[in-house]
Structures are given as structure tokens and as C-alpha cells.
Amino acid sequence: MAAESSLARLLKAVEPLAPDLSISDVADRLLTPGHKAFLSLPVVDGQGRPLGLVSRYALQDIFMQRFGRDLWGRRPVVDVMNPAPLTVPLASALEQAAQRVTAQLSYPITEDFILVDEQGRYLGLGTVLDLLKAMELRIAQRNRVLRQALVDLKESQAQLVQSEKMASLGQMVAGVAHELNTPLGYVTNNVQLMEELTLPLFRLAETQATLALALDDPDCDAQRLADALEQAARAREEAAPELLADDLRQLFGDTRYGLGQIAELVSGLKDFARLDRAMSDEVDLNECIRSALLIARNHLKDRVEVFQALGELPPVACAPSQINQVLLNLLTNAAQAMDGPGRIQIRSWAENDRVHISVQDSGRGMPPEVVARIFDPFFTTKPVGEGTGLGLSISYKIIRDHGGSIRVASEPGRGTRFLVSLPRHQAATLKRSA
Predict the structure, then answer these.
(1) Which of 219, 266, 324, 375 lies 20 to 30 Å from 182, alpha-carbon distance?
(2) CA–CA separation, 331 vs 325, rounded Å?
(3) What gap in Å lies between CA 316 and CA 370, rounded to an integer?
(4) Is there a cis peptide before residue 108, judged by omega within 30 degrees of 0?
(5) CA angle at 9 for the pair 365 and 30, rounded to the nearest 5°
(6) CA-based radius of gyration for the chain
(7) pLDDT (tens digit, 9 = 90+) per residue, 64-97?
(8) CA torsion through residues 177, 183, 189, 194, sign
(9) Segment 128-142, tens digit of pLDDT
(10) DSSP structure string for 337-379
């Protein structure tokens, strides 16, 4: 029973997927906040038997293809799942479970493992990182298999970065989608209202056309002409074009404003990804700051006040998408460090051959023992399941690969400040760290 309770602490009660669920529905579910900590989701049959696992990697490969979502979106999830998932009985001893998981690990790690009961029925998911952390607490001396697993995890850091980027991408897309919904909603409402307002104009045009035919007809009698005049007058009164003009001008103005907001978000998302830019390019880091702020707006608005003091900067040779990833990570962490309303101050300036960016928040701050480990891989102060502990570690590696530095100063109750410094020119080709 002690072994069962040890594994039970790692059990995540994740709602399984039905075999006939569409791939598009599964992709949408992976983007929800409740699933952001998982690399994969289980597929279970009607008797509770696990059929397989579908991973973020598999869906990413599909949707990166041209027309991938159109071609695959409606197909059942069983078409892309791994039909041979790693399953572990919940009653297994912690050491036995760890040996079984690490013995079957493949790199990069793209899937979680399934926990089942004695009859092989699905109970929930477990994550490799949680299992390894539990083993570190359980034993003082790691056995040879676990030592090799940790070494392999460190050597596969580049692959783990992709998993972190996928999770970050899910959060970012969800935030942008939320921001798009507001202007899209009132643009849609305006279009519907304009349709309703213009219907009387069409009726007016029809009655006037009828009146014109009556006037042009030499055989038209007085009664027909009177009826046409009466219908045209009534339609003109209902349409009230002199009042409608002001309403339409306001609706058109609001609609153009909403479309402008949508265009701004789409442009910001494109600039953030920089898919059409070279791996290393001469860019203005102030543009990266503005782009990251636009993408992070959903995390900041209505709660965080942002102050910008951006100086004139020379172009810097860098990988823009990687720098954007660092800035978005710093802004998101700053917002999460505030329990209520707060402020973030962003400064940029140039000094000699280096460019500096400072991100300072008014959050809860960190004690020295946390600051000392803040850039360590897998270190996180967030509850289990809410963070991988890779965000700042990845940011540190990105800045280091650019020949720069990232430093942190923090004090409990007085907030945190990150200082990113980058050289204007790169001595060698940038590494692909993200």
C-alpha cells in the first residue's frame, strides 16, 4: 500500500479522449490551461482500456504541413496516436515504476505515461519529470539507470526546449485568440446591425422602382399610381435615410477600428514569430519589446500597468524569434509574480558595443536561495503541474548563445529586475537554441 500511495501522488486525473474524437478537437483541448503541463493525452475505449497516446509533437508535425489542419482535422485521433503507449500499474513500487519508465524512454521525450489499475483500466496520467523528482526525494543515492536517465535528459535539452516552446505556443495562441475575440465580436455585431439597418433601404428602392414603372406606363390608372405613391412614401418614412446616415457612419467607423485592432494583433503575431526573417538578422530590439508586449497583452491588461522607457538603439545581430521568446517569458513571469494589481517597467539603452534591456516588476520578489537557482533547469517555485522549470533556463541559454548575459536582482516584497545585455555584433553564427 505504501508503494501505491507513492505513485498515487503522481497521478493526474486527465479526462481521456474517445477514439472517434477529431484531431482538431484534440488540438483545441491541448491548448486549454488545464492541459498545458502535459505532452500527450490518452485515448481510451468504452471499457476503460487505454488504446494509445496522442502527443503535441504528432499534431505539430501535422499542422506545420501545408493545409495540414484541413486535410487531417476531421480524421479520428486514433489515426495519429501511438498505439503502444507506456503503461504503469498504480500498485507498482516507485523504484519499479522508475525502472520501467526509464528503460523505455526515447529522446526527445514526447509523451507522458499511463497509470492503470490491476485490471489494466485507465486511471490517469503521470509525467516523467514528476517521477524523477519523486525518486530524488525517495533515495539519496541514485542507481545507475536513473543516473543515466538524468544525463540523457541534460543531453537532450534541445529537444526539451521544443516541448517548452510548444507549451508556450499554446498559451500564446490562447491569449491572442482571446484578444481577437473582443474586436471580432463587435465587428460581427456591427455587420449584423448594418444588415438590419439597410433592409429598409432595399424596400425603399423596390417601391421607388414600382413608382417609376407606374409613371412611365401610359396605361397606368389613378388608383395604381396612388398605391405606388403611398407605398413609396411609407417605405421612405420607414427607411429615414437622413437619420440612417449618421448611424451608418458611426458603425463603419467602429468596424474599421475593430478591423484595425485585429490587423494589429495579426501583424504583431507575425512579427513575433519572424518566420520570414533570417536566423540571424540586424534588428531593433525595441521592435521586439513592442511585439512581446502585444502578444503578452492578455496576461497584463486590467491588472498590470506597463511603463516604457525605450532609448534609441543601434541594430543588433540576433535571432529575433529567440529574443522575442526571452522577452515574452520575462513579461509572463513578471505578471505571474504579482498577486494583485502591479506595474512593470521596461527600459532599453545602448552603451559602448552592447545593448541592454531591463524588465522590472513590483511583484512579491524572491529570497536569495531562490535567486541562486533561478536559471537551473527544472527548478520552479510553481505548484506541480503548473510549470516545467525550463522557461528561464531556456532564456539563459538563448542569451548566452548570443554572446550576451542575463542577470537578476530580487528582494522579497520589493519585486524583481532582470537585465539582458547583448553585443551589437556576433562573433560566430548563432546556435539554434530554440
Answers:
(1) 324
(2) 10
(3) 32
(4) yes
(5) 70
(6) 30
(7) 888 777 888 889 999 989 998 889 999 888 888 8
(8) negative
(9) 888 878 877 776 555
(10) T-SSSEEEEEEEEEETTEEEEEEEE-S----HHHHTTTTSTT-
